[in-house]
Amino acid sequence: MSNRILLSGTPLCSSVLQSRAITAENQKGEKGQGGKEMDGRKGLPCLWNLKKDQVYTFADIEGPGMIRHIWITVQNTGPLKMRNLILRFYWDDQETPSVEVPLSDFFGISHGRTVPYESAFITMPEGRGFNCYFPMPFAKRAKLTVCNETGKDVGMFFYQVDYTVGDEVDKECPYFHAQFRRDLNTTLKEDYVILDGVKGKGRYLGVNFGLVDRFAGKNVWWGEGEVKMYIDGDTDYPTICGTGAEDYFGSGWGLINQFATKELGAPIIDGKYVSCYRFHVRDPIYFNEDIKVTIQQLGNDGRIESADPNGPLSEFIKKGEYKKEHESGNFERVDDVCSTVYWYQTLPTIPFGKFPDKALRSAGIVKKDEKEKEVNSY
After folding, report:
1. Does residue 59 contact residue 96 with C-beta atoms inside 8 Å?
2. Would you place residue 39 in the very low, low, confident or very high pLDDT band (cuts 50, 70, 90)?
3. Residue 270 is part of a domain; what is its CATH number?
4. What does the alpha-carbon distance between residue 338 and residue 182 come to, in Å, rounded to a whole number?
């Protein structure tokens, strides 16, 4: 009976599944082949130097199996470095990646930042070790790569991929996906798209969402925008629509303080930099045909007179970044936003749109007092 008892969702014991781990020393996860280098005295703990433009395959596993845990850490951190080490995961010999995300964004924090926090699937102990526990099943093959797009050698890259082999993975099994997007200047009255282009059956798992607030210091609120989910053929109007950004991320009446819980949080509330996340664990979002997820760019200034072309927000009005059409505190705004969305879907993966280039990924994420840290992070 013990194999029917679950410990954190896994069997207490199993005669079918085999546990394996891939590291720099045991790159194939072979049985009885770990810890051999330098007479077993920690001879190869990492990839010693991830070189400029190098694509390094840190796991290549034959299925069927399931990745259970990924741990990564790198030598020093800085926003530009973390935003330009790109993870790409491929399932079952597909040519297009099902995961394409910068390193720290994949582990739940926007803007190339690293902060201590814990959520249901991702932890960042001390802001230095990056862990994820997304179950990642695969039938034939799993290939995990990191690409150094920083323009420099970045030094040591530590990793461990913990997985099982022998898992039952049928044709109806949904596979893990994650995608990064950024828009430096959203369009007035056009919702920012978190996820689209998905066909098949699956589950929307959640998102980490980042904002660089150009209105910071102007005594206005950025997050009145509703999160919308268009499910299984929805067109003009969504099936699920929230009440505002901070509400979707679990708080209310604005986001004032940092917080992190298992399923929702805001690990960064730092001047103009905001990073929030939401995971739908106990409130699952299923789809059987397709799904699209968006968020409005709506703010609130609480003052009708703010729309005055000569008022406190005149610079944004002149640049076309502020527009008020109704007699309320809400206004349309242009924002700099990014997102990493997580979901499961049946294969095949429809190729993602163009991945944001280095200039787009990197713009405006280094604060003035961080420039020295950035230089010393390589």
Report:
1. no
2. confident
3. 2.60.120.1390
4. 4
Residue 122 one-letter amino acid: I
Give the total residue count for the chain.
378
Q: How far apart are the first and last CA of the chain?
A: 52
The residue assigned the tokens 């079918």 is: 16
Span 314-347, pLDDT tens digits: 999 999 999 988 878 899 999 999 999 999 999 9
Question: Which string of DSSP letters, residue by residue, matches 199-214?
Answer: ESSEEEEEEEEEEE-T
Residues 197, 141 share a domain: no
Domain that holds residue 341: 174-350
* Whether 259 and 342 share a structural domain: yes
Same domain, 146 and 20: yes
Q: Are 337 and 306 in contact (CB under 8 A)?
A: no
Percent of the chain with pLDDT over 70: 95
User: What value does the mean pLDDT take over residues 34-44?
Assistant: 77
Write the DSSP string, 146-163: EEE-SSS----EEEEEEE
Q: Is the CB of residue 159 less than 8 Å from the CB of residue 258?
A: no
